[in-house]
């Protein structure tokens, strides 16, 4: 929480997490006991090969914690991100609109799956062609969202000639640069991200 003391609360926790020993058999067994999908041997190899990484998620940025990100990154290699839930200014209650009613500031850690496909631009319309649909498995009529430059864009899957799959943007399509190439990446949470190549 943003009101916590950096010196007595936040930094000591980050320091302890970074300096902790995760490679003992007790710790490996505990980690695997928390998630039955983890393989103890593979988890042990991962913990031995990869240094610990710490992500600090704050509920807001303010004057007292604005310096935390640089200091924790320089001292411990920690990543700091801010995750804010949107609230109604009048009632003070959480907005019950979309499950995406939140804001992310600073660093947004993205962990890609290997599901990435390149897109082509239609010669006459601002449609995106899916070059390889074998991983995405999109079907004509599907309505999808693509995250593009920290915005959510809405698309409809349409079928082109020769059973090709195209994405038609719903609404204004000025965010697509016809001179650039694009790719779609599926993240671990099944979010689809559209990026320029």
What structural keywords apply?
4 helices; extended; 2 domains; three-stranded mixed beta sheet; seven-stranded antiparallel beta sheet; alpha+beta; 197 residues; single chain
Question: What can you see in these coordinates?
Answer:
This protein has 197 residues and is of the alpha+beta class. The protein has 2 domains: 101 residues, no CATH class; 85 residues. It contains 4 helices and 10 strands; from the N terminus they run αααβαβββββββββ. It has a 7-stranded antiparallel β-sheet, with no helix packed on it. A 3-stranded mixed β-sheet has the order 1-2-3. The two termini are 37 Å apart. The model has no long low-confidence stretch (mean pLDDT 79).
């Amino acid at each position: 929480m943003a009101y916590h003391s950096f010196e007595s609360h936040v930094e000591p926790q980050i320091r302890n997490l970074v300096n902790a020993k995760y490679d003992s058999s007790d710790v490996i067994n505990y980690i695997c006991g928390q998630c039955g999908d983890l393989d103890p041997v593979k988890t042990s190899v991962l913990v031995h090969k990869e240094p610990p990484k710490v992500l600090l998620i704050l509920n807001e940025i303010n004057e007292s914690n604005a310096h935390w990100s640089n200091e924790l990154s320089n001292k411990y290699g920690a990543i700091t991100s801010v995750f804010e839930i949107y609230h109604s200014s009048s009632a003070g209650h959480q907005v019950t609109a979309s499950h995406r009613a939140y804001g992310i500031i600073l660093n947004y850690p993205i962990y890609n799956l290997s599901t990435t496909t390149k897109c082509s631009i239609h010669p006459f319309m601002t449609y995106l062609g899916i070059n390889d649909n074998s991983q995405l498995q999109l079907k004509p009529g599907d309505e999808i969202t693509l995250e593009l430059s920290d915005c959510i864009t809405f698309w409809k899957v349409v079928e082109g000639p020769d059973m090709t799959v195209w994405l038609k943007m719903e609404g204004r399509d000025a965010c697509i640069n016809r001179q650039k190439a694009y790719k779609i990446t599926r993240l671990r949470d099944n979010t689809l991200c559209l990026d320029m190549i």
